[in-house]
Specification:
Phosphate ABC transporter ATP-binding protein PstB; ATP binding; 10 strands; Rossmann fold; binds adenosine-5'-diphosphate; 10 helices; 258 residues; binds magnesium ion; six-stranded mixed beta sheet; nucleotide-binding; P-loop_NTPase
């Protein structure tokens, strides 16, 4: 059987999303579907709202002073901007990885076990299994299995970033958000993370902000181009880079600004 006409199931359905930092209108009328088991890349010049947008997907910025958010972010059919949303549960399902790898000052093991413990897993054998599987999931197991109780901060930058992804995987998420996950890494570590992203998308939905257009082209299925708080264009990655429909996208990808 071929894979013709794969059903594109929506994980996020974002409608008329607007966000202000006081009077700074940082996201403007964003309509944005995000599909299951795809990699969606977000590109655009510095300050265009990429980080603001991706943080909004697990409601990380609502508590920032002066922030006002309007519109809908439907995640699996529920508007997570409603005050009732259980943010602990949401963040278990929608994990986040940042530009600067941010392991806790604890052991490698404890970094990965932390999330599952918060969510009520306490059995040692179960935790061991989660830690092993999560570290295998990011191709870090072989490198660290003999020093699981050593400090995570002793790992290299690239290993720390893979550990942070393992930490996100440990709570069995559905979606992983990554905000410029490789911009602090060397080329080899970057390549490993890119390979990992291609593997992870078999099981997870991934949204990645990158300032590197080649990276977007290498890893993503869909690419979104943001400019000054607006979503200018969202399309199949191949299409967006070969035949953009908006002049501003074309100007950006051909290096005329940014
Ligand atoms: N915590 C914040 N408080 C106030 N303004 C912010 C904050 N974070 C971002 N901004 C502003 O929102 C706009 C978009 O920023 P950001 O989302 O960080 O862009 P990008 O990630 O594309 O570089 C910018 O004008 C920035 O100055
Ligand atoms: Mg940013």
């Amino acid at each position: 059987m071929g894979v013709i006409a794969t059903q594109e199931k929506e994980v996020f359905d974002i409608r008329e999303l607007n966000l202000w930092y006081d009077t700074n209108h940082a996201l403007k009328d964003i309509d944005f579907p995000i599909h299951e088991k795809e990699v969606t890349a977000i590109i655009g010049p510095s300050g265009c709202g990429k980080s603001t947008f991706i943080k909004t997907l697990n409601v990380m910025n609502r508590t920032v002073p002066g922030v006002r958010i309007q519109g809908e972010i439907n995640y699996r059919g529920k508007n997570i901007l409603r005050p009732k949303t259980d943010l602990v549960e949401l963040r278990k399902q929608v994990g986040m990885v940042f530009q600067q790898a941010t392991p806790f000052p604890k052991s490698i093991y404890e970094n990965v076990a932390y999330g599952p413990k918060i969510h009520g897993v306490h059995k040692k054998s179960k935790l061991n299994e989660i830690v092993e599987n999560s570290l295998k999931g990011v191709a870090l197991w072989e490198e660290v299995k003999d020093r699981l109780h050593a400090p995570a901060l002793g790992l290299s930058g690239g290993q720390q970033q893979r550990l942070c992804i393992a930490r996100a995987l440990a709570t069995e998420p559905d979606t992983i958000l990554m905000d410029e996950p490789t911009s602090a890494l060397d080329p080899i570590s970057t390549m490993k993370i890119e390979e990992l992203i291609l593997e992870l998308k078999q099981k997870y939905t991934i949204v990645i902000v990158t300032h590197n257009m080649q990276q977007a082209a290498r890893v993503s299925d869909k690419t979104a181009f943001f400019l000054m708080g607006e979503l200018i264009e969202l399309d199949e990655t191949k299409m967006l880079f070969s035949n953009p429909s908006d002049q501003r996208t074309e100007d950006y990808i051909t290096g005329r600004f940014g």
